[in-house]
Amino acid sequence: MMSIFNQSFVIKRNSLITIAASAIGFVVLIADPVAAEEYVLHNFKRQQLTDVYYSEGASAGDINGDGKMDLVHGPYWFAGPTFAEKKEIYPALAQPRKGYANNFFQWIYDFDNDGHQDILTVGLPGSPAMLYHNPGVDGLDKPWPKAAVINDIGNESPQFLDINGDDRPELICNHGGHFGYASPDWEKPLSAWTFYSISEKDGFSRFTHGLGVGDINGDKRLDILFRGGWFEQPENTKENPAWQLHAAKFAAGGADMFAYDVDGDGDNDVITSLSAHNYGLAWHEQLQDGGKIIFRQHLIMGDHPSQNRYGLVFTEPHAVNLADIDGDGLKDIITGKTYWSHHAQSPMWDAGAVVYWFKLERTKEGINWVPQLADDESGIGRQLTVADVNGDKLLDFVVGGMKGAHVLLHTTETVDLETWKASQPKKYIGPKIGAVEGVQTLRGPLSPIDKNTKKVAGALEAEGLKFTTTGGTARSQPMAEFSGDSWSGVDHLWWTAARPGDKLHLDVPTEKPGKYQLEIVLTCAKDYGIVQLSLNNKPLGKPIDLYEIDVVTTGVLTFPTEELKAGVNTVTVEILGANPVAIKNYMAGIDYLRLISADDTAQLHGVLPQNAAGESLNTDFELGTLKDWGAVGKAFTEQPIKGDTVFLRRTDMHSNHQGNYWIGGFEKVADEPQGTLTSTPFKVTHRWATFLSNGGSHAETRVELIHKPSGEVIYRSTGTNTEKMRQVAVDLMDVQGAEIMIRLVDEHSGGWGHLNFDNFRFHQNQPARMGPPRKILVADDYPHSGLTAKEAVAVMKMPTGFTATVCVSEPDVKQPIAMALDDRGRVWIAEAYEYPQRAAEGKGQDQILVFEDSNGDGTFDKRTVFATGLNLVSGLEVGFGGVWVGAAPYLLFIPDRDGDDVPDSEPQVLLDGWGYQDTHETLNAFTWGPDGWLYGCHGVFTHSNVGKPDTPNDPRTKLNAGIWRYHPVRHEFDIFAHGTSNPWGVDFNDHGQAFCTACVIPHLYHVIQGARYQRQAGPHFNAFTYDDIKTIADHRHYLGATPHSGNNRSDEAGGGHAHAGAMIYLGGAWPQEYRGQIFMNNIHGQRINMDTLQQNGSGYVGSHGPDFLLTGDRASQILNMRYGPDGQVYFIDWYDMQACHHRTADIHDRSNGRLYKITYGPSVKTKVDLQTFSNSDLITMLLNDNDWYVRHARRILQERAAVEPLTESELSQLIEIATTHKDDTRKLRAMWALHATRGISNETTMTLLADDNEYVRGWAIQLALENNDQPTALFLSTVTKLAATDSSPVVRLYIASTLQKINLEQRWDILTALVAHTADSKDHNLPLMYWYAAEPLASVDPERALTFGLSAGKTIPLVRDYMLRRIASSTGPESLAVLINGLSQVTDVNLQLTFLTSIRAALQGQRQVAAPAGWDQAFQPLSKHKDMRVRVQAIGLSVTFGDESARQAFRNMATADQIELGLRRTALLSLIGAKDPQLAPLLQSLIPIAGLRDVVLNGLAQYDHQATAPIILKAYQSFSTADKRLALATLCSRPTYAIALLNAMDQKQFSGKDLTADLVRQLSNLQNEEIDKLLNSNWGTVRSTATDKLKLIATYKQWFSEKIHDAPDLTLGRAIFAQTCQRCHQLYGVGNNVGPDLTGSNRTNLDYLLSNVVDPSAVMAKEYLPSVIITDNGRVLTGIVREETAKAITLQTADATVIIPINEIDERMLGKQSMMPDDQLKQFSKHQIRSLLGYLTAKKQVAMLATPATAAMLFNGKDFSGWSGNKDLWKVENGEIVGTSPGIKNNEFLVSDMIVGDFELTVQVKLMPNNGNSGIQFRSSVKKDGHAVGYQADIGEGWWGKLYEELGRALLWDKPSDQHVKVGQWNEYRIVAIGDQIKTYVNGNLCVDLDDPDGASEGILAFQIHSGGPMEVRFKDIKLVVPTKEK
Predict the structure, then answer these.
(1) Residue 517: how many CB atoms within 10 A of its CB?
(2) Which residues, in sequence order, are bridge partners of residue 482?
(3) Which residues, 6 or more positions from 1238, have their beta carbon under 8 angstroms from its beta carbon?
(4) Inter-axis angle of helices 1428-1440 and 1415-1423, to 10 degrees?
(5) CB contact at 8 A, 1059 and 983
(6) How far apart are CA 1423 and CA 1431, in angstroms?
(7) Quick check: 201 and 222 in contact, CB under 8 A?
(8) Contact 259, 285 (CB under 8 A)
(9) What is the DSSP-derived secondary structure letter of residue 1683?
(10) Helix and strand tally (H, E) in the chain?
């Protein structure tokens, strides 16, 4: 503060005030008349309410109804009139002053008209608005009920007042990128509010500053003001039209804004602070300019004392109010300093926390604002309330903020004239700062920086010129860290500490005299000044304002010059001042200068096209008209635009136009109009052309170049959803000499529905580095949220002929979670009010409703509440005289035998034990199956143990992922199939095949009885499963796994990973193309996906059909679909903006719910009651084309047959259909009905087994064993024959499935027949289904099982391999002896290896096993085998059998340098597995060998040897990044090693940054006091408290949301992910499976993401609870148990899979904290963390930046993780990448998704034959078709050592190096690329040495197979090294 005032101020009071209303507080205040000529002193007395920071604001109102004002601040209200007593509104929690409060604004209003004042609260921008309901006087001692009424409230100055004239207030704010207002349904104000958008989505972020309300244009309607202008309220707001935007630059970042007639001229002016976090307060005078409203700014207070009449300066006026304080009839301004609004980042941040009011005076000299200091201790927050709080008719101030909460009580004192005059503030007479006249925001095109040299050709780098200054200092500043722009030479000349009037003189050398054009590029930032440029003392144009929010350049500014002399000319930069909103540091930056001679100007800047007369066309619009252009439609009305109007309306962007005029599609008519603008045709006279363009990224907003003769579009470009135009370069070689036209197309009326264009020119030479044209993609378009049901159906998009209608909506239905249709076509709906938490027993509020069309007119006119008081309902179905309800932990039946819609009794518990650990994964999606069972789904993270009530634990059925069923008559429970993730939909097709939909993992599965499917997490219950069946989907509904797919919009893929509902349409009313296809809702894609199902082998393939229904509504959450009696489809919509499951109940919107209907064609009235039909009629109904009738008829027949058997006539009717009908689907329907009613006779079964149709035969097999596990001999012999002879894989699938029900002894012959079908080895289902049936036989008869397995191996190797492994896993030596005996009898090498590897795999985890009988005899020939692989495996097995000679042989092998590394690794792994007592010294000696080091380091962890830690620490610095990680893991494995490690850290032997947070957690698990002490001193405290974590989350969230120059680098983010998260998680298919797959998680929700990153232990699924295991020799391991047998535990740690023998475990405990550490980001910089969060929240995969930490991840030696290519041509074999060409027409590439810049790559390559051709791509890019573009190091005869640019400049280095090549052998190829220098070496010989400034500086790596004849190329020992400098 730069001026001092008394706390009181004398005002001459001589007028009457009537009403003053706060725009925030809604307090009406009345003052009494005061006699004229009184001199009154206004004082304010501060009363502190609390010194605790709870909120950024405070408010006033009568809370307890006693007629006295109370005050509200955060969680408390303070009772008036003393405000000494406080009571809680919600639990009080002090907020972090280093962060921000969760409460910013509070408004008091009686929302529900109950006579009690409620409180509306808004927190940090982006958080929801919470309404606290006043419970009344009797309830004020308890926390108030609350409701989240609208999510994502944006703007830092929201307002609460009546905007639309309905006499009730609205919440004016930003929401979803729009300006608008939110209003409740006043009948239900605690329900979700509706947001009414008034603007397009146009960059209005949640942290937007500046908002107000007032009537600008005098039409008696309130307009909305913001910093960039005002939105005019239309006459009618009922249709929610967009309000017209009037651009005006009020502030860069203001606060509350007011429309008030300051000068008394009859129109309203605008009052606002200029920057909430910096300097400035102003009023803007309204003026008229040709009938248009404009504003002139009048500064009240600036950044210098001279800018206020009384010398007042303070900062951070983040809240402003307007009220008549002194009763003179004029409103005064109240504001102050928002102390620590940006912590220590704002100027004068630590100055006094003042509160001022500015008295308005209208004098002859003009307007004067006289400041009065009300207080100098309290400061303000974001909300400043003005109200008469004590009833003395004087306005008081209520404030809250970082300093707590205060009320400033207003008093008056009458004084004499002399005292009054003495108290007048004195006018400022100190030094002044002059205003800068004629200032312009001059910006030019982007600098033409060469990508390789990083410089502009011919540039004079400013930092390299000789310079002098008259003040301040100038020096070079590196600019690489500023990602918002590019600087030539990556630095600039930085001038700091200057003041207005200072000058910087630059000496510009000029070789020869002449006329030159001067180019100069300056730097802009928020603390840069206004400068005047001069050349030789002559001004260059007007002053230039260098203020920008981000650090960017001005672009190229061009100035024409006079003749320049040879020698030195002088360019001067003078500081004149600064933008009012800029930070006043008066800095400047000069990037480069360039003098362009007249001869060079044409090439540099290009030439305009010409017409036939040789006249230049107006393609740069500098004529100021549309001459030479033709417009159609209104999109380009009033064009061109003059000047940078973009910056006037939004200070975060510029137009970047050239010259004075340009096409700005938004500037005059906004986004709504459409049209085209087409140029006059012109001849292409040059090969190259450029233009400036940007705007919307839609396909409908584009620039086209059109070949006039043909009308063909030859080039097309779209924008990037930004206004700043970028230069686009086009190669016109193919149309040179022809006529073309430019066409600007705007066919989009929504957000970003416009385009900008300027300056089309021709160039003789390539003007810039060419890139492919921007691909035009359809972006995700979810423009809606918070719609009414009718509005929602109006915007749904469906195929032609379909319509959607509303059947029921809120308030008649809410929270619909399940639905069913009864036999009358009525819709039953379960409402889930308790989700996501089960209520206390007896307190449930869920209910079941029935909706009915009572008169058949198609409208639901009757609503019945069937059942209430249910708890956690999730599933619903109707039938068998009642309702079936899933409500974990129960499966319930509610009887209603008489059908009167009134329950006959309380719900009956049929089954209990259903888990609800994850309440959105419990029993759900009920439906009746064709076999008469009730089917349902169950998710993976909920653990159930199901049985009938009172059943003991053991007989119960465990379930945690799968499809289950329950028989309604026999009351039997069964798991139909195990696996998947969180299925929430199952249905059956015409052939009775089941399909389910799932989330996160692939989404579609063909569900086979007895099958086991891919799991999202956790092991299968059967430990011998070994593998499971995968998805049938040939696609994903979310983005692909590599950055080269070209699919960068999830909309194209189907919308997202999460699905709900499954309906296979069989309704008969829709077109035939939809019959049999599966429909599912895509939760994140706001649509219904349709997948097409095609039979393939024994199963199906699911392909992505066209998405059926697009809601475009972010709140839509369709959960289930059913077709009805008219064949049309009903679906329920949960309708909630919270798409993902969340344990917090309050986050879900409880007020909505819908039932819709999709109809094709005209709606047909259908009224039916199937219960009235006879059995015979129902049987006939089974033939109906609408399966609704079929299913209901079948179920009714089943119900009736359970009471009274069907007659012989009725049975005959069914049998006839089943055996003679021509349509196989009708046969099946009759079969299912027969089975459901009494069972199919043996005679009928045999008939059906001989049917021509494969599904009939298959179902006959399944149904025959449904009720009978002892089939007849005839049935078994028939099935055995079918297994051998039936040509259908479908039949064999049914047999394999059914075998699991047959007695084990009866399986042998059938299985033997099945596995004889060689074709089945490639089937999607059969090999594993055969295995699941065969697996138990290994324990029944190991010898026979071996014989079976060996036989199966000839046709289906999987069955053999698994059987060998299973036999070896059996307990007892007999099984092992059987295998050894079998091994001794086989001679085939591959079969011997299969035996050996299977036995060894089964014995893993057992250090030593007694040698079985026959091993010595078997081992002798194997140990001398001619095949080294057999010898090694045999010796390894002998090691396990305790053979010391075998151990010694492996010791010798491990240390023999002449033996290849792969065999040495095998030897070491065997010795480690056997825990060879002599191994530790040997392992220590092998540490220097890089190829063995990972095995060595992992092995050393299990030995407690005193020499290990010193040896590792000594060699540590020489290790690769990956090996360093393994070394640290070993050193953290036991206390002795850990102490040595921490001591070394203490002695600075290595950086503490290497010790990541997960290793710190491992160290803490050692539970050693000395370690804990060393850890605390060396690494720091491990955060553990909730407060710490909340602070950290707030910090990271703030970092990520900052709009700073250092933008997140997603490729770096992926590199950080690879260093941390990827060790345990997968994202887009890359990473490990220790923790959950993140691809489909709720990553875009930053709060969800950060809470899981910072506090991962808060909520852990059971599958991810880590185990801490302490072995008997002191080793401590932390990991996830993946498998557990009687002999060993398989533990997945963050670094390895470790098998631990049970007998070595000393202690085992379940960890309380996640393996994912709390502090894992501690080691990274702010930029790295921002980049990681950017990557995690991104919608698509990106390339990974190669860094020193990630370079080793280039190739893992095992598979193609991180690579993409044609799998038919590329494979991994023995750690080698092998490319095999059978002879191909086009080049093929194996592409890495790692980006390299500077690097060194070494690889061994072998080419056979040598006349083939291959290559190594580097610094390349990839086209859509997979073809690599860029540098290639060539391989092949005549090409070895050459350097080629694929699809580019062709041969760059033409000298071959064949003389260095070892033909047909391994050759070392080394590529070194540093900057522009490219070097390659073959076998150590230099081949290429090229300085190439024109080449790419970064790009991907790839291997090539060249087109041509057959060849093979192999790559191994691939090593990438990256310099330590990161991108």
Answers:
(1) 17
(2) none
(3) 1201, 1205, 1206, 1211
(4) 150
(5) no
(6) 5
(7) no
(8) no
(9) E
(10) 36, 104
- Provide the token pair at 1098: 């024994």
Contact 616, 610 (CB under 8 A): yes
Percent helix, percent strand, percent coil in the chain, to nearest 5: 20, 30, 45
| Residue with tokens 């009686």, as numbered in its chain | 110
Tokens standing for residue 1205? 């058997």
Answer whether residue 1602 shows pLDDT above 90: no
Question: What three-state secondary structure class fits 1538?
Answer: helix
Closest CA to 519 of 574, 583, 445: 445
The label of the residue with tokens 């003179």 reads 328
The DSSP secondary-structure symbol of 10 reads E
Whether 1090 contacts 1073, CB under 8 Å: no
Residue 25 has pLDDT above 50, yes or no: no
Residue 927 is inside which H or E element, if any? strand 924-928
Give the whole-angstrom CA distance, residue 1403 versus residue 1381.
17
Whole-model pTM: value is 0.54
The per-residue pLDDT for 380 is 95
Q: Cα 916 to the chain's mean position, in Å?
A: 27
Q: State the Cα–Cα distance between residues 1126 and 1067, nearest whole angstrom.
A: 8
What percent of the chain stands above pLDDT 90?
A: 54
For residue 8, the tally of other CB atoms under 10 A from its CB is 19
- Rounded to whole angstroms, the Cα distance separating 518 from 522 reads 13
Q: How many Cα atoms occupy the beta-carbon half-sphere of 1325 within 13 Å?
A: 28
Q: Which H, E and C letters describe 37-100, residue by residue?
A: CEEEEEEEEEEEEECCCCCCCCEEECCCCCCCCEEEECCEEECCCCCCCEEECCCCCCCCCCCC
Sign of CA dihedral 921, 922, 928, 933: positive
Query: What sign has the CA pseudo-torsion 1856, 1859, 1864, 1866?
Result: negative
Cα dihedral 1203, 1208, 1213, 1219 sign: positive
| 1582 DSSP 8-state letter | P
Read off the tokens for 1134: 């949960």
pLDDT reported for residue 31: 33
Cis peptide bond prior to 811, omega within 30° of 0 = yes
- Residue 1399: is it exposed, middle or buried by C-beta count within 10 angstroms (0-12/13-18/19+)? buried
Mean pLDDT of 1306-1331: 95
Q: What is the mean pLDDT of the chain?
A: 86
Q: Decide: helix, strand or coil at residue 1821.
A: strand
Residues 869 and 858: their CA atoms lie apart, in Å, by: 31
Task: List, for residues 430-482, the tens digit of each pLDDT value.
Answer: 766 656 788 887 887 778 888 777 888 889 999 989 999 998 889 988 887 78
Closest by CA position to 53, among listed 390, 309, 387, 340: 340
Collapse the DSSP code of 196 into the 3-class scheme (helix H, G, I; strand E, B; otherwise coil) and give the result.
Answer: strand
Closest alpha carbon to 1433 in 1460, 1469, 1402, 1393: 1393
pLDDT 10s digits, 205-233: 778 889 999 999 999 999 999 988 999 99
Q: How far apart are CA 1250 and CA 1258, in angstroms?
A: 10
pLDDT of residue 1690: 83
Inter-residue contact 1509 to 1540 (CB < 8 Å): yes
Inter-residue contact 929 to 905 (CB < 8 Å): no
- Please state, in angstroms and rounded to a whole number, the distance separating the CA atoms of residues 1393 and 1401: 12
Q: Which of 496-500, 955-959, 1048-1052 has the highest mean pLDDT?
A: 955-959
Question: How crowded is residue 1353: how many other Cβ atoms within 10 Å of its Cβ?
Answer: 20
Which pair of structure tokens corresponds to residue 1741? 């995969």
Nearest to 1190 by CA among 1173, 1208, 1207: 1173
* Tokens coding 992: 């009775």
Q: Per DSSP, what are the bridge partners of residue 553?
A: 523
> CA-to-CA distance for 1570 and 1562, rounded, in angstroms?
15
